[in-house]
Write a structure and sequence with these properties.
Largest sheet: 2 strands, antiparallel
Distance between the termini: 28 Å
Strand order of the largest sheet: 1-2
Strand content: under 5%
Order of helices and strands: HHHHHHHHHHHHEEHHHHHHHH
Radius of gyration: 23 Å
């Protein structure tokens, strides 16, 4: 665990990694996600108060878990009388799930607290947007502002969704139990969507100085692998896992001290070939089982993974994949990615026919990557004044420090040329990667949204 300047553990890093696990364990005790979140928060408050004075424990994560469980029991004691119900609930505090084997998971029981929490957050009593918001908060540990950006809504709306979702689950008395086989199948599409949202937040953070959040991406991969063991005959479980593994293979090549590295500039020797091989095997398995939208996206990602150099990328094939994808699963961000693929395969005129109509879509009105792509199209066609205007709009709309740095650099270079100079040799985006379907978030930030996966790289 990284230590701060004081020599104490990095609380922010601990929060990102441990907060979802604390909430999951506390929910098993309280049976109330709102109380569980308070217990997890109280554990971190206790750490901030005690560690500077008493010194950090040898195992900070274990200390936080124990403190959160004790606080959860205290909250239950405050909420109910000392009757048999309390004794039953409090008894759960000492029965952890640390020794669960993969065989137990494969048998069809969900013994992992975190995965069980995902299925609770995706309960059908909640609306789709509420499921996503609640899972991102409790499982992903995102702030309300980050969730708002992920769903293309205001922070107030995101906060209200989270509060209403927790209240709905508590009022309905929804238990923290293993869902039945039928219930798992019914909730699976929502669960997969949320897992991918969490992965995407890790792959390209919506805001802040960090370009990536490997802790979130790693948690999503872990959940995806557990789902694959739990539901081995479900094609889209394997399709999503394949997509995430192929995308995660690029982590080490996407960043360097001076900033993010765009896809075509990445050193492909740094790509994780083990993850690529696992992803390609998973893709074959998903296709054999019947496939679906995640499988289709994994096939697009595989086109990049198989190319030894950027110049070897089969853009006509990627464009064909996107043409088929948007026919079956239309969304504005999928259209944007389709336009990028057609640009690389067939030129700027083909791209404009796809991309420019997106300016009329209200879901894309504040989507900075649309304007970044339009700026590159303008510059490629020699319209440098328009390119500058579109880049300024893109810069003004992003909350991501990494995206802001890339876009500002492009804007500075364009302005330095005084409206003249070479056209860009590639789009600003990481080409042809996006998320599952869209809705409030277009299709980018995890299946409902508006940001091609990986943003600018």
């Amino acid at each position: 665990m990284t230590a701060g300047a004081s020599g104490l553990p990095d609380i922010e890093a601990l929060w990102r990694i441990e907060f979802p696990r604390l909430v999951a364990a506390a929910t098993r005790i309280t049976r109330d996600p709102d109380l569980a979140e308070h217990a997890a928060q109280d554990a971190f408050v206790a750490a901030l108060e005690q560690w500077p004075a008493e010194g950090a424990p040898e195992r900070p994560a274990a200390w936080l878990m124990t403190t959160a469980k004790r606080r959860a029991v205290d909250l239950v004691r405050q909420a109910v009388t000392r009757d048999a119900k309390y004794r039953q609930v409090a008894g759960h505090a000492g029965r952890g799930s640390e020794n669960v084997s993969i065989d137990d998971i494969a048998d069809g029981r969900i013994e992992d607290d975190l995965l069980r929490l995902v299925f609770l957050c995706c309960h059908p009593i909640l609306g789709r947007e509420a499921r996503v918001a609640l899972t991102l908060r409790l499982v992903g540990g995102l702030t309300t502002h980050e969730i708002a950006r992920a769903q293309l809504v205001s922070s107030a709306t995101a906060g209200q969704r989270i509060a209403r979702a927790k209240r709905t689950l508590a009022d309905a008395g929804i238990g923290f139990e293993n869902p039945t086989r039928t219930e798992r199948a019914e909730r699976l599409p929502s669960v997969l969507e949320v897992v991918y949202l969490i992965f995407n937040e890790g792959y390209a953070a919506t805001s802040g100085a960090d370009w990536t959040r490997p802790d979130l991406a790693g948690e999503a991969l872990r959940l995806g692998r557990m789902l694959a063991h739990l539901m081995p005959r479900m094609p889209e479980v394997h399709g999503l896992l394949a997509l995430m593994e192929i995308q995660a293979s690029r982590f080490h090549a996407r960043d360097r001290p001076e900033g993010p590295v765009l896809l075509e500039d990445q050193n492909r020797m740094l790509w994780d070939r083990l993850l690529i091989r696992r992803g390609l095997r998973g893709l074959d398995r998903a296709v054999a089982l019947g496939g679906g939208p995640y499988t289709a996206q994994a096939a697009i990602a595989a086109c990049h993974a198989r190319a030894l150099t950027h110049e070897d990328t089969d853009w006509p094939e990627i464009a064909r994949h996107y043409d088929d994808y948007v026919q079956r699963h239309p969304s504005p961000v999928a259209e944007l990615n389709r336009g990028i693929a057609h640009w690389r395969a067939h030129g700027t005129a083909a791209a404009r026919r796809v991309i420019e109509p997106l300016l009329q879509d209200p879901r894309m009105a504040r989507y900075h990557l649309l304007y970044a792509v339009l700026a590159d199209l303008d510059a490629a066609d020699g319209h440098h004044r328009q390119a500058t205007a579109h880049l300024r709009t893109a810069v003004s709309l992003t909350d991501s420090a990494a995206d802001h740095a890339v876009l500002t650099g492009k804007l500075t270079a364009l302005e330095a040329r005084g409206g003249r100079g070479e056209a860009p040799r590639r789009p600003a985006l990481k080409e042809a990667e996006h998320r599952p379907r869209e809705e409030t978030k277009g299709e980018a930030r995890g299946g409902i949204g508006a940001k091609p996966q990986g943003g600018l790289a």
